[in-house]
Amino acid sequence: MIKEGILLSTVLLGCVQLVTSCSCYWRSAREMYCDADYVIMATIKSELSPPGQGEVNPGNLSLIDLFNRRVQYTYEIEIHHVFRQTASYSSAMKVIHTEGPPYCIRRFEPGSTFVIMDWVYTFYNHKVPMLGASPCGRAYNIADPDQVSDLEQLFEQDVDCSANTTNTVDTILN
Question: What is the C-alpha separation between 54 and 170, in angstroms, rounded?
Answer without folding.
Answer: 40
